[in-house]
Amino acid sequence: MILEINKIMEHAQEAFLSYQQVSGSKKKEFLYSIAEEIESLGDELLHTASEESHLPFARFVGERGRTCSQLRAFGDLVGEGSWVEAVIDQALPDRQPQPRPDMRKMSISLGPILVFGASNFPLAYSTAGGDTASALAAGCPVVVKGHPSHPRTSRMVSSAIQKAVGKCGLHSGVFQHVEGVSFELGKLLTQHPLTAGVGFTGSLTGGRAIFDYAQQREVPIPVFSEMGSTNPVIVMKDALNHRSPEMAKAMAASITIGVGQFCTNPGIILGIKSSVLNHFTSLLAIELSLISSYKMLNEGISENYDSALNKVLQDKGVETIYHAHAEGELMASPVLARVHADHFIQNPELHHEIFGPFSVIVVCENKSQLLQVWSMLKGQLTTTLMATDHDLEANKDMVDMARNIAGRIVFNGVPTGVEVTNATVHGGPYPAATDARFTSVGMDAIKRWVRPLCYQDCPDFLLPVELQNANPMGILRKTNGVFSRQALIP
To answer: Whole-number mean pLDDT of the chain?
Structure first.
C-alpha cells in the first residue's frame, strides 16, 4: 500500500510543477470540460447514484446541476483572474528615513490536495464536488479518496474528470482517484510528505482524526474539515402567533430532506414556554407524520442513527412527540422530541448532532434561559431566527449573539440548502469546521488551497502576469491602497 501511495503522490507532485503555471483561461476550459463530461454520462450516472445512496432519482437531477454549475462558476472565477488578490505597493525611493522597496503580493497554489469524498452528496460533495473544483481552480492537483458508499458513482465521475484532463492536454497526475475502506489508507495519504492540504466533509470523529493526523506530520498541513452541527433554530413569539402553520411545514421538510442526512439539518429548536409554542409543536408533529420513511445511505449511518436515537429517547427527561417506527433494512422515520431547558442544560449528551431525520424542541422558561442554552451549543454551521420584524426589533441582542455561534445566520428560512455564491459561508467555529476563517462552499472556497507570496523588487518581466505593470488580464488589483484595473506606468 505504501509503495502505491508513494507512486500516486509523486505523480501528483510532478503534475503540480506544470499545472501551477497553467493560465486562468486554460483552467476555465478544463473545469468547463469536466462539467460537460459529467453531463455526457446522462441518466446512467443519476440512476447509479440513486441505487447506491437510496435517494430518489430526482434528487440527483438537481445535484448534478449543482455540481456542474459549481465547476463552471470556478472556471469563470479563475478565467477572470481577480481572485488571486493581487496587491502592489510601488517603490518610494525618496521616502525618509529609508526608501521603500517595490512590493507585490498574490495568492499561489499550495500543491497536491487530498479530498475525501462525502457519503451524503455523491456528486456535489464528493469526487467532483466543491473541494475538488476549488482545488483544481486554484492550480492544485487533486487526489480523491472515493467514499465506499457509492464506488460506482465515484468511478463514473472520476472517468469523466480524467477524460477532461486528456482533452485539455494536461498532465495525467492533475487528478487521481483512490479506493479503499481502511482508516489506514486515509492516514497514509494525509501524512504523505507530498500532500499539501486536505478537504473533508463528514463526521466530527472522522474530521478530527484527519486533522490530528496532519498535525502529527513532520511538516503540518492545513486540513479543512466540515463536520456538521445541530444548527439551532430559534422560534420567536410573534412569529409563532402569526406563522406557525407555515413554519411547521417548512421545518418538517427541512428535518427530513435527504432522510435528515444533511450537515445543516435543524437538529435543535429553541423556544420560550407558551401555548403558541405548544401549538407549533403539535403542528410540526402532524407535518412529520405526513412524510414517509426512507432508506438511509448505508448500514453504518443507519446503525449510528438508531443507536443515538434510542439513547436520547430513553432519557427520562426527554418526551417523544412523534415517532413512527420504520420497518425494513436501513429504514428511518422522522422523530420529534421535546425537553425542558433545565434538563437539556444538565445533559451535554443531548447537545450532539443526530445524523438523520430527528429534531428536539427545547422549552425554555424565559429569554434568559434560552440565551443560556443557545450559548452552550458549540460552534455551528448555521443558526436560524424564525421571527417577525417586531420580534427582531425587540431582540436585537440575539442577532449579535448569533454572530458568535455560526458561520451563517438564517432569517425566516430553513438551514438546509446551501447556495453556491460569492457570499456563501459554509463553515463556522469549531467543531462545525476545523478553521472558521474559511468556507467549503462558494467561490471563496478556493482560498483554502493557496498561500500568499510576495515579490520584492522583482524585474517586471519576471513577475506573474497578474502583478506586471501592464496588467494584461485587466484584473482588479489593490495598488498603493486603491483598487483599480488600470495598468501602471513604470
So the answer is: 97
Residue 303 burial (CB count, 10 A): 12
CA distances, 23 to each of 26, 54, 139, 149, 208 (Å) = 5, 41, 9, 36, 35
Q: Are 468 and 456 in contact (CB under 8 A)?
A: no
| 438: amino acid identity, one letter | F
271 near 244, Cβ under 8 Å? no
Per-residue pLDDT tens digits for 162-172: 999 999 999 99
Give 320-349 pLDDT, tens digit per residue: 999 988 889 999 999 999 999 999 999 999
Distance CA 443, CA 474 (A): 20
Bridge partners of 410?
384
Q: Is the pTM of this model over 0.90?
A: yes
Backbone angle region of 72, left / alpha / beta, with phi > 0 → left and psi within -120 to 50 → alpha: alpha
Handedness of CA 303, 63, 183, 230 (dihedral sign): negative
Q: What's the angle, vertex CA 228, arms to CA 225 and CA 231, rounded to 5? A: 140
CA distances from 21 to 62, 76, 290, 453 (A): 34, 18, 55, 15
Percent of the chain scored above 90 by pLDDT? Answer: 97
Q: Cβ distance 87 to 174 under 8 Å?
A: no
Give the residue numbers marked as catalytic. 226, 263
CA nearest neighbour of 295 among 324, 267, 329: 329
